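Example S7 (structure tokens).
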């Protein structure tokens, strides 16, 4: 029987690995969606400049790099900063703000799961 001072067992064999995988998957999906969004934004919005495309590609590359570094504690903080940068890229095009909000919510959920499972 677990007492009030003991954390609830998660039922996972390796909780840290599971949480790292969730963070990495979130960042990898974000990078994939950002790269896929370039062409529809250009076609529909029409105002996506070369600089904005470069920013989107850079954010996607940072997301992929961070997904591979989720073993390091600082990668979680860098992932949070990445969400902020994506939100700021909304100044370049409104659809990037929408993507930023969606992925900021997904990242907040990943952080919540991490806090619940790892304490």
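Recovered sequence:
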């Amino acid at each position: 029987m677990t007492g009030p001072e003991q954390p609830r067992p998660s039922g996972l064999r390796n909780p840290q690995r599971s949480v790292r995988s969730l963070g990495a998957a979130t960042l990898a999906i974000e990078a994939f969606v950002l790269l896929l969004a370039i062409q529809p934004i250009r076609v529909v919005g029409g105002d996506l400049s070369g600089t904005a495309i470069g920013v989107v590609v850079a954010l996607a590359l940072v997301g992929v790099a961070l997904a591979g570094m989720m073993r390091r504690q600082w990668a979680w903080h860098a992932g949070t900063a990445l969400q902020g940068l994506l939100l700021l890229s909304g100044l370049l095009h409104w659809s990037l703000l929408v993507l930023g909000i969606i992925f900021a919510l997904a990242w907040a959920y990943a952080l919540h799961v991490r806090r619940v499972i790892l304490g």
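Notes on this example. The chain has a mean pLDDT of 89.
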